[in-house]
Design a protein that fits this description.
The protein is of the alpha+beta class and 293 residues long. It contains 13 helices and 7 strands. The protein folds into 2 domains: 3-163, Butyryl-CoA Dehydrogenase, subunit A, domain 3 (Up-down Bundle); 173-288, Nuclear Transport Factor 2, Chain: A. Helices cover 57% and strands 14% of the residues. The protein has a 7-stranded mixed sheet. Helix 2 (29-44) crosses helix 3 (54-75) and helix 6 (121-133) packs antiparallel against helix 7.
Length: 293
């Protein structure tokens, strides 16, 4: 086996863990993949014989990449626009006990990702690495360039916010439900002006390959283009909880055919994902809502 092949094999052994770390940091699958790719590029330029603990070294590298991305996002006041539904928790290589893992799996749904988005980059990193992946505060301190005591305080502040996620999730749920209901109503009657008002100026709609094959628009960018895509449509779409977050679904005969996943920030829709791939839909928890709910 060549030297490069061996490095690639060693990296692949750590890829799932690195992707899990990056996803929890960034809340976006595509950005997580970008961070992991950057970690690979840095590893490929490194002499692996100088790395004593490869897993720990790679975790540090991908964490620093994510921290830079979070800081850049904050400086640009960038909106969070994940590519698709948050995935189930990807297990880490830590030695966390099964009970902790079970509690963690229940705590990292989409609503909590929204709460994590409100944290400062260093707070988010400290919480994710320590509470989700059992990285020591001494190690995290080197990444955020603070003392271990200060790093512990960062994680503590973040933990208090996350522990209040149930309350925050209720507020998020109610606000998002109002926006989704208004969007569906405006879509059904073709009220283009109201649709545009509900959309972020840079809103985007995306459809997966199955949705495209069913006649869906693959992509539209900008409030007006997205509004025109939905104007007069969504006649049979029903309000639905998608992994606990308000959205909509088209389910003729009671079988979900298209899931309409909204990402909403500051009362406006920033992205709409049309998910029609049956395999993907089966991985999503759907709960139809009554109009009076």
């Amino acid at each position: 086996m060549s030297h490069n092949d061996q490095m690639a094999e060693e990296f692949e052994e750590n890829r799932s863990h690195l992707r899990a770390v990056a996803y929890r940091m960034l809340g976006s699958v595509s950005e997580a993949d970008d961070a992991v790719q950057e970690a690979w590029l840095r590893f490929s330029r490194t002499d692996p014989s100088q790395v004593e603990n490869l897993g720990g070294w790679l975790t540090t590298v991908v964490s620093r990449v994510c921290l830079d991305m979070l800081r850049s996002r904050a400086s640009r006041r960038e909106e969070w626009m994940p590519d698709h539904m948050p995935e189930p928790l990807m297990r880490s290589a830590s030695n966390a006990d099964p009970e902790h893992e079970a509690l963690l799996a229940d705590s990292v749904g989409k609503a909590v990702l929204v709460v994590l988005e409100t944290l400062a980059p260093a707070e988010r990193l400290a919480f994710v690495l320590h509470d989700m992946f059992a990285v020591t505060f001494d190690e995290i301190a080197l990444i955020v360039e603070r003392s271990p005591a200060a790093t512990r305080k960062l994680a503590s502040r973040a933990r208090r916010r996350v522990q209040g996620a149930d309350t925050d999730a209720t507020i998020v749920h109610d606000r998002q439900r109002t926006v989704v209901d208004a969007f569906l109503a405006a879509s059904r009657i073709g009220d283009l002006q109201s649709l545009v008002a509900l959309l972020d100026p840079d809103a985007v709609v995306r459809a997966d390959r199955v949705a495209v094959a069913m006649g869906g628009d693959w992509q539209a960018v900008g409030a007006t283009a997205v509004a025109k895509t939905f104007s007069g449509r969504a006649q049979a779409a029903k309000p639905t909880l998608i992994d606990g977050v308000p959205g909509a679904v088209w389910a003729p005969g009671g079988t979900p055919r298209v899931v309409i996943d909204f990402t909403i920030r500051d009362g406006q829709i920033v992205s709409i994902d049309l998910i029609a791939d049956p395999t993907h839909i089966r991985q999503i928890e759907l709960e139809l809502l009554n109009d009076e709910d």
